[in-house]
Amino acid sequence: MLICCGEALIDMIPAKTKDGQDAYVPHVGGAVFNTAIALGRLGTEVGMISGISTDPFGERLKEALGASGVDTTRLIRADRPTTMAYVTLQEGSASYSFHDENSAGRMIAPEDLPALPETCEALYFGGISLAVEPGAETYATLCARECADRVVMVDPNIRPGFIRDEAAFRDRMDRMLGQADIIKISDEDLDWLQPGTQGSSEKARALQAQTGALVILTRGARGAEAFHAGGELQVPARTAEMVDTVGAGDTFNAGVLAELSARGRLSKDDLAAIDETDLRAALDFGARVAAVTVSRAGANPPWRSELD
């Protein structure tokens, strides 16, 4: 089993009413939620740890997870509001305004964390859940508790406007990236974490040397690069008629994890010794499923049957 740890929220997507007025339509979402949904649809055994409200939006999130085959038994339910993300789309690219004060997702504490099953082979962390306290430190606690025994993947997925304490966030990222076996990071996120004139590939190479992790650098339409102890490789993005990019990176992460799991590579030893064939296949599968997501509106990852 893979367990995704982080936010589940409601994306308020711009739309038009029948008479042409501006409006928002609620859609289930969140970076970690999207990855869990994508893994479930790809047929991977997956669960989720997240603070979920008991309000109608929280019920909708729980039902959506179950409908895509995600185990919901470790959700942390609370009588607090659901996080809302108001989305702005410009030429298909999304930016977000988050409303998260006192939310069910944000207010989880270490004592709320569930025990993990022995069948859990990997944990995935990322998104805005790593940016705001107390929940961010709760996820950091879980990462530190489990990283010696299970594969950890981290995608910072940084939203600079959402970070209130930059020093604390950078400290948390240093700790979690140092505990990770897989780091997936976009070129924009890497430039934010490591300001300077070096190119993204040089920065990713340095991050790999510093952490010892498999580092996957994504460049949007320019594809992805991987840096690991055995070398480097590049995989192009798949061609797609883009509608928007909502959930593209999250789906890519799911594809990579699903393929690594299917190939029996989700253990610390197997990742450390991964060969180019398996790594290229995992990145290419991530690009394949992400291309489906960008070809339709919102975060709507493909089912395995759509890929056959």
Automatic annotation (TrEMBL):
Keywords: ATP-binding, Kinase, Nucleotide-binding, Transferase. It is an enzyme of class 2 (transferase). SUPFAM superfamilies: Ribokinase-like (SSF53613). InterPro entries: Carboh/pur_kinase_PfkB_CS, PfkB_Carbo_kinase, PfkB_dom, Ribokinase-like. Pfam families: PfkB (PF00294). Its EC number is 2.7.1.45. GO terms for molecular function: 2-dehydro-3-deoxygluconokinase activity; ATP binding. Residues 2-303 form the Carbohydrate kinase PfkB domain. Belongs to the carbohydrate kinase PfkB family. This is 2-dehydro-3-deoxygluconokinase. It comes from Pseudooceanicola marinus.
